[in-house]
Every structure is written in C-alpha cells, then in structure tokens.
Amino acid sequence: MADTTDIADLLEPLIAFRRDVHAHPELGFAEHRTAAQIAGALRAIGLEVHESIGGTGLVGVLKAGSSARTIGLRADMDALPIHEQTALPYASTNPGVFHGCGHDGHVAMLLGAAQHLARTRNFDGTVHFIFQPAEEGLGGARAMVQDGLFERFPCDRVFAMHNWPDLPAGVIATRPGPIMSAADKFAIVLEGRGGHAAIPHNTPDAILAMSSLVTQLNTIVARRIAPTASAVLSVTLIEGGHSHNVIPATVRIVGTVRTFDPDVQDIIENAIRQIAEGVAIANGVSALVDYDRYYPATINDAEAASEALAIAGTIADAQLAPEPAFTSEDFAFMLQACKGAYIWLGQKQDDHNVPLHHPQYDFNDGVLATGIRLHVALAETLLPA
Questions:
Q1: Does domain 182-295 have CATH number 1.10.10.10?
Q2: Catalytic (active-site) positions
Q3: Which fold does the domain 8-180+298-382 belong to in CATH?
Q4: Residue range 59-112, pLDDT digits in tens
C-alpha cells in the first residue's frame, strides 16, 4: 500500500476549499455552486465527471490498471436551514443556511482522496467518487439510486463517512448491522367544531382530545414494544387556537419515530393510528393521521463493516461502535442497493465540542487528513494493485 501520509501538500488548499464551501452553503437539490466547484476540481486532476445525477449529484470516475473491481466512496454536499452563530471569518454568507452538519468537511475529505489517488494510482480497478445532494431529509441518495447510480457506476462496495462529535478527534468507528435508525414523521389533525370557551359542553374540544392523545402516544414505546427492542417516539410540535376565549376547531401535532426493525416500525405506526381513532371517538372529534417513513434504517453489510474496521485500524484508532445511533441517514438507500458500510469519524475537541445541527457547530479541520487517509486506504486495500 502507498504511504498515504504523503498528503501534507493537499491539506492547506483543501482547508481553504472547505471553508469556501462553508461560506457559500446551499440547501438540498440546490447545491449548484458546490457541485460546480467539485466538478471543476475533479476535472483539474483528470477525472471523468458525470453531473446532474439525481438532481445536483455528481460522480467522478478514476480508473487504474485493468481490473473490473470497483468501489464507491460517497460524500454529502447539502447544508441545513439554520442561522449560523459562529462569527467565524468564513461564516455563511447565505442567511438562514448553514453547514451545521459538516458536509463541507465530507466534500473536502473525498476531494482530497481523489487528488491523492489520481497522482499515485496505487490501485487496480475503478473508484467512483459520489457527491450526493440533499441528505438532510430530502432523500438525495434515493434520487441518485433511482436515477441509475449503480447501473451507470457499478460498485462492489460503497462506503460513506460522517464526522461524529461524540468520538475523540481522529477515532474511526463502525459496526455490522444497524448503525443509524429509520426516520419516520407523523402529523395528526383533530377536527372539532370550535366555539365559545364559556360553553364547552356545546363544543367538541379538540385541545382536550389532543392533550389525551399526546399522553397516550408516549405510552407506545413503553407498553407496545418489547423491552429488548429499541425505539423512540417524540411529539415535537403542537398547533391550535388563537384566543383565550375560543375553543379551536382544529388542533395539529407533529412528531418523529425512530426504529431499527421494520416490525417495530409497523407496530408503532399501527398503534398511532389506533390511538388517534380511539381518542377521536371518545371526544367527539375526527382524526386524520399522516405517517411518512421517509428514511429507512441504515444497515451495514457485516462483511463490509468488518473490512472497513480492519482497514481503518491501519491508519488510525479504529473501534467497534457498541450501539447504533437514533439519528438517521439517507445513505440507507444506497446500502439497500449495494453492499457497503457507513463509518463515523470522531471530531471531538476537548476544549470546544459542539453537536451536529447546532448553530455554533463547525467541522474540525484537524481530522481532514484522517478522513482522506481512510478513503484512500479503502480504495487501495479493496482494489489492490
């Protein structure tokens, strides 16, 4: 294997590139500037570049030798609809849009791996560098898969890496099987008639019904799901009413469900519908339930996860993740179509550690080198020259 520590000359330009992307964040399926910058950088090092895959996605193709073996390496590109509060010199110039999940760093790491592999070519086969749009809730991975990603760019394995503030900087972790949860969202509307608050006996009370509903929904995980299973249900929004003396006709709640097992997912969805219907009947209102399973669980292929851990151990401190996370990731759609693994890269800093999706978050440039080395090591090990 080539000496992948020989990347020092790449780091300063990549940090500048990362910070430029950070300063110009774009939301899902609107990553036009970001994609163009990446495409230009890939073409500059001689890669074949394919754009507009699944919207604003792109793939850079690098071949060496004569082997038919292939590997896919994926980075997400989109930002979040959050107002940045970092006061960094490279803070977002797009108000209300912010790289609060480190996708700017993911882009830089994958671009750095492409630059290193393009000049060393110490592998035999094809590397597909996949830059994905719209990870943050919009299903960009699904869009790329539906647009023929793996038919056009077949991969024996596909890997994605995400920075992880809960792990010390530079530590790499993954696990076989579930690593991120399925993400469902529900919205329930209870409809009464509305009326004067002073004569409630003449008005079916949607607020009272909703209060009962919220309480009962929070019993589902404790009383419908086996203690050995894992699930989370959270009500996150309640809307209804506009005056102190009016009982509103309509009240709406919104929430999320996180699971790892489709059977558990089925139980929870069915329970939500049953409870909403029962509460509606008991209170003389109607109930409309909208349940959306927008991201499946991210399930690592056992062999691919083992390969990733072994390879990571050659360049960093690699750990078997003891448990999955209840956050979600649309790389799940790629893993449904191709064997592979999702990997966490620690970025925790002792003196300043901010969680993902926080308005003061910033990617830790100190782990760029580790991320590049892991991408390179995956390609060179699985496509040996």
A1: no
A2: 78, 135
A3: Aminopeptidase (3.40.630)
A4: 999 999 999 999 999 999 999 999 999 999 999 999 999 999 999 999 999 999
